[in-house]
Amino acid sequence: DVKVTQSSRYLVKRTGEKVFLECVQDMDHENMFWYRQDPGLGLRLIYFSYDVKMKEKGDIPEGYSVSREKKERFSLILESASTNQTSMYLCASSLVSTEAFFGQGTRLTVV
Amino acid sequence: QKEVEQDPGPLSVPEGAIVSLNCTYSNSAFQYFMWYRQYSRKGPELLMYTYSSGNKEDGRFTAQVDKSSKYISLFIRDSQPSDSATYLCAMTYSGGYQKVTFGIGTKLQVIP
After folding, report:
1. Which chain B residue has the Cα nearest residue A103?
2. For each successive 10 residues of chain B (112 residues), what is the average pLDDT?
3. Closest CB from B8, B95, B99 relative to A40
């Protein structure tokens, strides 16, 4: 069974903290993504990666960075967490655009 | 105007009803159209995808694409309480890697 695993289901962090969200996939997919999902705004792409050590900005990259040192692992970094980054974060991987596999999501609250 | 418009609902139907979920889009370059289902506190999972115009059926689910009207639909026959979820439409330019644009999702509740 294919799997995308996010390291935490729920996180509470303080404003200004550096936050790491980890994602691991076991399907040998080249493409990996980080989205955030907010009510009324849907899924918005933060960053994606189509190969190891490669990264591309999505629609809302400000305040975030990513790291992909190994094919199976894609990390999202909030350099200095702010309250407007409170959201559900979803990691996904895919071979082709027509089928993405999502993790369970990390609900991040910044206080 | 958003590239993809989807009514967020919520939509409540009785068990056994036929459900129609819809999205409209503005970019005529979209070629592939997907429907994802997302249960509460879970990530989305792909239900089905369709290439260009036409219908595709999978069990109780039928996806329809009308490119001339820039309108896509997902029909659920004999709806079950287990179908209660948020349904997201999504679309992209090609089947390789291209950016995928998602609708905001329609929340569906099937009442027993």
Report:
1. B43
2. 90 97 94 96 94 91 95 98 97 78 96 96
3. B8
